[in-house]
Each structure stands twice: as structure tokens, then as C-alpha cells.
Design goal:
Number of helices: 28
CATH architecture of the domain at 1-10 and 174-238 and 549-771: 2-Layer Sandwich
Largest sheet: 8 strands, mixed
Shape: globular
CATH class of the domain at 1-10 and 174-238 and 549-771: Alpha Beta
CATH topology of the domain at 1-10 and 174-238 and 549-771: Chloramphenicol Acetyltransferase
Helix content: 40-55%
Radius of gyration: 28 Å
Number of strands: 20
Strand order of the largest sheet: 13-7-6-10-11-12-1-18
CATH superfamily of the domain at 1-10 and 174-238 and 549-771: Chloramphenicol acetyltransferase-like domain
């Protein structure tokens, strides 16, 4: 999502004077430290690692094995073939009366060794099985005999009742692709957007790179892939996110929306109470690893490492680089309302406060008439400032207002009780949705603490939203939490007839603690400057959200096509009609099939998509010709998507090669050219991961409407989309008002027209287009 903007901007942070000093360390040392960080993370999770590390076995299986050995000994059988006797001889002699104890200890030690060997064998076998990606490359709906055999073996070795991190030790490491293949795929991806002259020049740079530098850089990546958990993910977090000096607002955050058509209660404090309680229930399940790991096809597990930092996490600014601070626990949330900050405890006597008690606390804040202190109202604008500026100001703030700062940064998450309503309105549905998206993405520039892992935003009419910082995890992780939150607060916790949380208030609860900021005079100017810059950035963002209801996932499935590839290919048509040219297109997909995998880029603007678009714009071509080329473009996109998911993408490999070249101080014109590219169309699909939580057939309105992010380029678009149920697609478009080349509303209309035009290539779609045009004419 927002990563496309960060990916474009990471290069200056590598070549800055301050960064150059740090990048001067030997590359072998950096690879060593990368592996060391991986091992430290594993050691910090020692206890959970023990419980999940024995999976697919269980501690009870050791007891069963020990009992079986004891039974064999009782029957005068020796399953150890003499090993237990040797173990017994090596144990201290405690006298004749302890002879039986020595036998039991020898049996226990032998059982433990045998149990460990069996677990290791299961891990190795499962890791080898999970390294198979043939199932991913097969045509949809078809399954070969090897894949069927693979599924049966995975089912046997996977065990039962897995915990969230049960499969971590069995996940394969992300492979380093062949550098020749990566360069070939890269050249293929840029061919549709380059002239013949520019392409020949780029191809020449590529050949020079393969001859001179590629083998050395590739060797270091191979070494890192063997030593560290993942050859690219830690560098991606470091250089793309934490070293970026840009404002987090718009550039490194994204938003997620509430239900589109319904609001369970109009009572702001009640909605906040249920939502906060639901979020903390999710955290409780997360701490106990009761959240089930995500499984593709119901069998193939995805990496769960990113779940660890959802809560109690803050991105701390630094002059040259930020760092992520994660606490093991936090018993409060930080709340912002009308320029004031509060600390609200979430537990009483070690028990989570009820939704009604939390509502009571939030209502007390809403009813508090005290005004904001001077400059306190706009203090959070500093978190939207450039990171080096905020880091310098934070040093003074930490000295003068350490307690208040710690209360915010040490909170489980941030809650903003907005004074304005938001969401879809009947009077002006288009403008109201656009304003809703803008409020979630940027707010007023001073009412979100952008450093927090996420901020829960509750509007005055009870509408909810989420603003998420991107460095700690990717969208599917926060999306999983958000789905649980919406389903739990609405369907399980529920509301009384008068709109309040169920239960009774607790009059003995202490009042929420007002946070007091002793702001030194020297930061007043910094706050004013940060606020001015934040308002300028916020005012420059053009958001447009619309639900496309003419058809959805059901229609695309009946066409026997991939839903995502259908949309991506259609977006190429819409963008060409909007700009009159093709451009590099960024689609984010996950690489969580591998240990600590994050994302990869699918370059959706292909030669096949270009040929389809040109054919569609040629009035002399028939529908049959257009449809044939459309299917080819969709198939090509599917192949690229599957290759990216299986670790055979282009951009992360080129990124890692570039980082190594910087460590070695090797100049590569080819890699410089690659990382100077601009993504004028950045796209992402918001997946629905827990469809079982929502009854989309009986209650189709009770599904989240997805979310969005800022554009990756000053003259580009950010486009995200989500399939709401079976018959609606929600689009979120962003661009910058300062650009004369972009207009979010214009692109939105192009997308709707392109969807109807593509649908009309199919027999059933012609009726949909006529209906769509009729509705537009009547409107």
C-alpha cells in the first residue's frame, strides 16, 4: 500500500552524508549483524518458541513416548537397543536404593532424545514440503497428481490445533532468485513504457551490470540468505521505512474504514467502548497465540511474525534513522479529544474493563469542559513533521514532559475522539465518502499520533476508522485485526436498545488521567511550523471513494478469471484513458509463504496489457479480438503474481542488490537507473481474510469497505480496492491537488467506464453495461 511511496524515496537516505558513515561498515559485518538480530528475536520469544517449537508434536506426545518405554521395560523389552543401559551407567551412583530412580531417569533421557529427533525430522520434512510451490503455478481449478500427493503429506505432517506461531520453525527461507532471471524480467517489465532508444540504453546498462558486478553482489545475498532468517525483509524495513526522513502522514500510513452503509450506534462513547474492548480481546488472544495461523488452501501456512508488533508499539524518531519500540504489555490507551490528551486505564484488578466501563471513561472525557493548554492542541503535528525535525524536538519534549510522552508512546494504541461526524450521507454520498477517507488518512494534521502502530478514530456520529503506520507490518495484518474488531463489537458485544454498551457503569472507576505537557518555549515555533506543513500536506491530498455496484466477484468468477487480475488489467485501460500513456504500475503482494517475508511488487503494466488497451481503443477491432487479448493480459498478470508470491519477483531482489552495492561502495549505473524510477500508479487489493465472521448473504452491508493510501508520486495515483461481498467493489483513489496531470474523481469515472466496457466483452456483461449506462443517464 503506502510502501510504494517509501520504496521510491529510500535511495536518498542511503546516499546522505549521515547515512554514508553508517553504511561504511563491511558488508560481512552487516550480514553478521542481520543474522544476530534474527537470533535475538528468536531468543526473546523463548517460552512461546518452546510451546510452538515442538509442533506438530506436543508435550503430551513426550509423555506418551516415555510411558511406552516404561511399559516396554516392565515387559523386559529394550526399545533403546542398549542405549538406556549406557545412559544409566553414566549417571551418578546414589546407592542401591536409588537403582530404580536411575532407570527412570535413563528412560526419561532416552525418551527426550528420541522425542527431539522425531520433532527435528518432522520440522525438516514439513519445511521441505512447504518449499514446494507447484500448486501455486497450476491453472485455477486444476490440481495435478504431485500436488494432490503434496497436500496429503502436508496434512499428515502439519499436526492438529496449531497456534499462531506453530509453523514458524517449519517455514522455508525466501530464496534468492537468479540474477540473470531478475534482470530479464525487469527488462521485460519496462519494455511497454520505454521508447526503443531508451530501452536499448537500459538493456546496455543491464548487460554491463551482469558482466561486472552482478556475480559479486549475488554472492553476498546468497551468504545472507543462508545466515539470516530472510535475505531482504530486515533491509526493507531499515532502508525503506526507518531511514526515510519524510513525514509519516500520507507517505507512510494508510487507513481502513468502518461498515459503509450502517453504523451500529450513533453514541460516540459507546462505539469507542466496544471497539477498544474488542481490540483488547484480540490482543489477549494474540498474547495467548489463540489466533489461528493463516492457511492458503486451508493447508499452506503463512508467516505470522508481523503479528507480534500490532499493539504496544511506537515508531521512535531519530535524527538519521527511526527505531521501533515494542513493549511486552501496556495497560492503558492514550486518548485525544479537542486538543487534550488523556490516559485511560484498560484494566481493573488485572481484569479487562467491560465495554460499558470503557464507554463511561470515554464519556467522561467527552463531558470534560477543561480547555487545551497553549500549544497542546497542535502538539501531535510534530509526529507529522519530517523525522529528523521531530527527533530533535522530541529530545526537548522528553526532558520537559517525560511522563506525558511516555503515557502516549507506551500506550497499547492511540484513540482519537473526533468532534465532527463522518461516513456516508444520503444528501451527498460522493463528497461525504471522500471527506471520510481524507479524515482517516490525514485528519487535521494535529489530531493523530502518527508514530503509534495504529490509531483508532471515533467520529462524533459513532463512525469508526483506523490509521495505521506502515513500518511494523503490512496491510493484511492490521486488516485481520480490523475484521475481528468490527465483527466482535457489532455481533458479539452488541448494543442496548438505547445505543449504549451492554452492562452497567462502574461508579468506583477513577477519572481518566489528564496528561499535562510542560512545553518549553523553544518548541512552540517547531509546533507552529509542523502544523503549517501538516496542513499543507493534508490539504494537497485529493481522496475519492466510491462503491462500484454493477457487478463484483461473482460476475468475474463466472467469466473464469482471477478477480485481482481482472481489476489490474482494467486499471491499465482506465489509466491510459486518463493520461494517454502507459506507466510503471506497482501492485503489492505478500511473500509470507516464507519466514519473515513481507511484500513483493507485481509490475502490472505488461506488454500483454498494453496490447489489450490499444486494441480496446481501436474502434476497428472486434469484441472477440479484445476479449482474446484481455484473457492473455489476465493470464500474464496471474503468472507474475504467482511468481512474486513464490519469491521469484523482481523488485525486492534488485533492492537487496542495490543495498549490497552501497555497502561495498560499488557504483552501478543499472541499479541507479532501476531505483530512480517513479511509480505513477500504485495499487493494492485489500483482502477479506475472515469471511466466516460476516454473513455477507443475509447482511451484505456489514462488511468493511476497505481502505486506502496516499499516491507514490507527486504526479501519480494511489488506488486500492476491496471486494465487498459478491456484487460490490469499493475503490479508494488518492492523488495530489498540486498536480495538473491527476484528478482522483476523473480517474474514478474512468475506472467505472472501463469496468463496464470490459464486462461488455462478455455476453452477460453487455446487459450490465446497458443497465449501468441507463442508471447514469437517469441520474
Amino acid at each position: 500500500m503506502a510502501e510504494a511511496h517509501q520504496a521510491v524515496g529510500f535511495r536518498p537516505s542511503l546516499t546522505s552524508d549521515a547515512g554514508e558513515v553508517e553504511l561504511g561498515v563491511p558488508v560481512l559485518q552487516e550480514i553478521y549483524l542481520s543474522g544476530l538480530r534474527s537470533w535475538k528475536r528468536h531468543l526473546s520469544r523463548f517460552w512461546n518458541d518452546f510451546l510452538t517449537g515442538v509442533f506438530p508434536a506436543s508435550p503430551l506426545s513426550w509423555l506418551f513416548l516415555f510411558s511406552a518405554i516404561q511399559l516396554a521395560c516392565f515387559l523386559q523389552l529394550d526399545p533403546s537397543l542398549g542405549l538406556m543401559e549406557k545412559i544409566k551407567e553414566s549417571l551418578p551412583d546414589w546407592g542401591g536404593q536409588h537403582h530404580r530412580l536411575r532407570g527412570v531417569l535413563a528412560a526419561a533421557l532416552f525418551a527426550s532424545c528420541l522425542w527431539g529427533a522425531l520433532i527435528f525430522t518432522l520440522h525438516v520434512a514439513l519445511r521441505l514440503l512447504l518449499s514446494y510451490h507447484g500448486w501455486l503455478l497450476e491453472p485455477h481449478g486444476a490440481m495435478s497428481s504431485p500436488t494432490k500427493t503434496w497436500l496429503a503429506l502436508v496434512r499428515i505432517f502439519s499436526g492438529r490445533h496449531p497456534m499462531l506461531f506453530s509453523y514458524q520453525r517449519s517455514l522455508p527461507r525466501q530464496p534468492v532468485p537468479s540474477v540473470q532471471d531478475t534482470v530479464r524480467k525487469y527488462l521485460e517489465s519496462v519494455r511497454p513504457v520505454l521508447s526503443d532508444k531508451d530501452f536499448d540504453w537500459t538493456a546496455g546498462l543491464a548487460q554491463e551490470f551482469l558482466k561486472l558486478q552482478a556475480s559479486l553482489l549475488q554472492w553476498y545475498l546468497q551468504l545472507k540468505s543462508w545466515w539470516a532468517s530472510n535475505y531482504v525483509s530486515d533491509w526493507w524495513e531499515e532502508f525503506v521505512y526507518l531511514r526515510s526522513r519524510n513525514s509519516l502522514m500520507v507517505n507512510s500510513n494508510y487507513y481502513m474504514m468502518d461498515f459503509l452503509y450502517v453504523t451500529p450506534t450513533p453514541v460516540q462513547a459507546a462505539r469507542a467502548g466496544n471497539a477498544v474492548h474488542a481490540l483488547l480481546l484480540y490482543r489477549h488472544r494474540l498474547d495467548r497465540q489463540e489466533i489461528l495461523p493463516t492457511l492458503l488452501m486451508g493447508m499452506r501456512p503463512l508467516c505470522s511474525a508481523q503479528y507480534e508488533k500490532i499493539f504496544n508499539t511506537t515508531r521512535i524518531p531519530g535524527v538519521h534513522r527511526d527505531h521501533i519500540r515494542h513493549l511486552r504489555d501496556s495497560r492503558h490507551v492514550a486518548v485525544f479529544h479537542r486538543g487534550r490528551f488523556f490516559r485511560v486505564g484498560t484494566h481493573s484488578q488485572s481484569r479487562l474493563l467491560s465495554p460499558r466501563a470503557l464507554e463511561q471513561q470515554f464519556q467522561r472525557i467527552l463531558d470534560d469542559p477543561s480547555p487545551a493548554c497553549p500549544h497542546e492542541e497542535h502538539l501531535a503535528a510534530l509526529t507529522a513533521a519530517p523525522r529528523d525535525t521531530w527527533a530533535q524536538v522530541r529530545r526537548s519534549l522528553k526532558t520537559q514532559a517525560q511522563e506525558a510522552l511516555e503515557a502516549v508512546e507506551g500506550a497499547a494504541f492511540f484513540v482519537s475522539l473526533d468532534s465532527e461526524p463522518a461516513g456516508l450521507t444520503r444528501e451527498d454520498p460522493a463528497a461525504s465518502l471522500d471527506a471520510y477517507a481524507h479524515a482517516l488518512l490525514a485528519g487535521q494534521g494535529h489530531d493523530r499520533w502518527f508514530d503509534k502502530s495504529f490509531s483508532l478514530i471515533v467520529f462524533s456520529n459513532g463512525k469508526l476508522g483506523l490509521s495505521v503506520e506502515h513500518s511494523w507490518a503490512d496491510c493484511p495484518i492490521s486488516g485481520h485485526m480490523w475484521e475481528f474488531t468490527l465483527a466482535t463489537e457489532c455481533f458479539q458485544l452488541g448494543y442496548s436498545a438505547d445505543g449504549h454498551c451492554k452492562g452497567h457503569p462502574d461508579p468506583l472507576l477513577p477519572q481518566p488521567q489528564r496528561l499535562h505537557w510542560d512545553l518549553p518555549d523553544k518548541i512552540h515555533l517547531s509546533i507552529s511550523l509542523a502544523l503549517r506543513a501538516a496542513k499543507t500536506l493534508s490539504g494537497n491530498i485529493d481522496c475519492h471513494v466510491f462503491p462500484f455496484s454493477h457487478f463484483g466477484k461473482n460476475f468475474i468468477k463466472r467469466c473464469h478469471l482471477s478477480s485481482d487480475s481482472f481489476i489490474q488489467t482494467t486499471l491499465q485501460l482506465a489509466h491510459f484513458r486518463d493520461r494517454g500513456q502507459f506507466c510503471l504500475t506497482y501492485e503489492s503482494t505478500m511473500t509470507r509463504l516464507f519466514l519473515e517475508g513481507r511484500t513483493e511488487t507485481v509490475r502490472s503494466c505488461t506488454r500483454e496489457a498494453r496490447d489489450f488497451v490499444r486494441t480496446m481503443e481501436d474502434k476497428e477491432k472486434t469484441d472477440a479480438q479484445c476479449l482474446a487479448l484481455f484473457r492473455l493480459a489476465v493470464d500474464k498478470h496471474q503468472a507474475l503474481l504467482k511468481a512474486a508470491m513464490s519469491g521469484q519477483g523482481v523488485d525486492r531482489h534488485l533492492f537487496a542488490l542495490y543495498v549490497v552495492s552501497q555497502f561495498l561502495h560499488l557504483q552501478s549505473p543499472f541499479l541507479d537507473q532501476v531505483h530512480s524510477e517513479q511509480w505513477q500508479l500504485a495499487t493494492s487489493q485489500i483482502p477479506v481474510q475472515q469471511i466466516h465472521l460476516f454473513d455477507v448473504h443475509n447482511y451484505p452491508d456489514y462488511v468493511s469497505s476497505g481502505g486506502g493510501f496516499g499516491p507514490a508520486d507527486d504526479h501519480g495515483y494511489g488506488v486500492s480496492y476491496m471486494f465487498m461481498g459478491d456484487d460490490v467493489i469499493t475503490f479508494h483513489i488518492s492523488s495530489k491537488k498540486s498536480s495538473t496531470r491527476t484528478d482522483s474523481h476523473r480517474l474514478g469515472q474512468r475506472i467505472q467506464d472501463a469496468l463496464l466496457d470490459v464486462a461488455a466483452l462478455f455476453p452477460e456483461g453487455q446487459r450490465l453495461k446497458r443497465r449501468g449506462l441507463g442508471e447514469e443517464d437517469s441520474g
